[in-house]
Design a protein that fits this description.
Layout (H helix, E strand, L loop, with lengths): L2 E7 L6 H12 L4 E5 L11 H7 L3 H12 L2 E6 L1 E2 L2 E2 L1 H13 L8 E7 L7 H10 L6 E8 L2 H4 E2 L2 E2 L2 H17 L1
Parallel strand pairs: 1-2, 1-3, 3-6, 6-7
Antiparallel strand pairs: 4-5, 8-9
Helix pairs in contact: 3-4
The chain binds flavin mononucleotide (FMN).
The site of flavin mononucleotide has 14 residues, from helix 1 and strand 4.
């Protein structure tokens, strides 16, 4: 059975991006879905000095292995001041030191959400232009606006958004 990982690009306990990524994972049939939580990987703020002195931590290597062992990735990015949340950027920078092709050309479904009407469009634009240089094989992408209105009780309640995300998920599954 193919193995999919979901990642919310945030360390908020109640991360809406984690919720979105996990709910999209639940829509997928016939695959194993593993929900990763960046909180489970303790990573110091990246510095070349720490890298030189301490090398790659066990947690970093575990996170890297989850990506390596997966067949596909659902990633939903939080937007902080128009860019990646610091915790995600930190993990991304550390991972890129192990292998610049962080995403290993695994099929990726790329999402972002916020409570704004743009749903994290700025961080999405950054990731869409950057990830291809880091082994990103983006099969589909979607910003999910006004999260609290459109996602309730663990489910996508906007019919239009659910239809779009289901179509993207189908394309993603076919690409595995
Ligand atoms: C420092 C900071 C900056 C933020 N900047 C943005 C922003 O640029 N655009 C946006 O839509 N929301 C912004 N927000 C609101 C986040 O989208 C919101 O906190 C969201 O819950 C983050 O996703 P998460 O729950 O997955 O961590 C910001 C929040 C914080 C704490």
């Amino acid at each position: 059975m193919k193995k999919i990982i979901t990642i919310g690009g945030s360390t908020s306990k109640e991360s809406i991006n984690k919720k979105l990524a996990e709910s999209v994972g639940q829509l997928l049939k016939g695959v194993e879905v593993i929900n990763l939580d960046l909180n489970n990987y303790e990573l110091p703020i990246f510095s070349e000095d720490i890298e030189k002195d301490q090398g790659f931590s066990n947690d970093l290597q575990l996170l890297n292995k989850e990506i390596e062992d997966s067949d596909g990735i659902i990633l939903s990015l939080a937007e902080h001041n128009g860019a990646y949340a610091a915790a995600f950027k930190n993990a991304f920078d550390w991972l890129s030191r192990i292998n610049g092709k962080v995403w290993r050309n695994k099929p990726m479904l790329l999402l972002s959400t916020s409570n704004g009407t743009r749903g994290g469009q700025s961080v999405m634009d950054i990731a869409l232009s950057r990830f291809p240089y880091n082994g990103g094989n983006i099969i589909g992408s979607m910003t999910f606006p006004s999260f609290d209105q459109n996602f309730q009780d663990g489910q996508i309640v906007s019919e239009e958004l659910l239809l779009r995300i289901t179509q993207l998920s189908d394309r993603f599954i076919k690409s595995l």
